[in-house]
Amino acid sequence: MNAEKTLLVIKIGGSTLGSHDTTLEDIVYLQGQGVSQVVVHGGGELVTQWMGKQGIEAQFVRGLRVTDAQSLDVVCAVLAGLVNKQLVSAINALGGKAVGVSGVDGNLIKAVVKDPELGFVGQIVDIDLTLVRLLVDAGYVPVVSPLGIMAGPFGDGAQMLNINADTVAGEIAARVASAQLIFLTDVEGVLDGSGKLISTLGPGEATELIVGGTASGGMIPKLEACLRAVTSGRHARIIDGRAAHMLLESMDKDGLGTTVRHD
Predict the structure, then answer these.
(1) Active site includes 53?
(2) What percent of the residues of the chain are helix, what percent strand, and what percent coil, each to the nearest 5?
(3) Domain range list for the chain
(4) To which CATH superfamily is domain 7-260 assigned?
(5) Catalytic: 186?
(6) Does the annotation mark 44 as catalytic?
């Protein structure tokens, strides 16, 4: 991965993808224009559906999925299998070149248990971008599912962990000085207390939204990931992935969604 070349880290979630979605088309178009990209995906809603099919009740603590051993089997199967391969096959069918990996592959993500109450949910302690760099340099879009290997006592890779996909995207972007992070969400951006879109945030303002409770639910890990990413000196964006070709629009226009800037 050429150090001078901008790497676009794109986080997509199941809530923004559907038959009308143009995000994958945009990714293929940008790849054709020589833009290096890494795609990180979630898939929590589908995980919950498949847990239900297995008779497993989904439980959440402070917005994070409780992942016991039985749940982890479903998480791995759905995220690294079904969701990942659907995205890869769709990108390739559109004329792109994509390879699906998880955070387990190539020791991409190492983590420790975030909170015993959450079970096998990981907090990232290290990222090795060797595999991602090889794929990007070979002309592929790596599509990353948010799993990791437990560091420490299980350093041999015997234990996998479920990791928040927003956090994974932010950590990958933070490790590349030329990276730009874009979140495609199911809202127009970050909203203030009156429900009005905030177009630009500095690190202090973003932190205040989290601490003060204005940002809640799934927006918290997104803002935290943006704060982590902008430490490398570039900006991060949270935009509405439901709008047609919003990814391409965000590359050409300012003022779309919310931009978290580096002060």
Answers:
(1) no
(2) 40, 25, 35
(3) 7-260
(4) Acetylglutamate kinase-like (3.40.1160.10)
(5) no
(6) yes
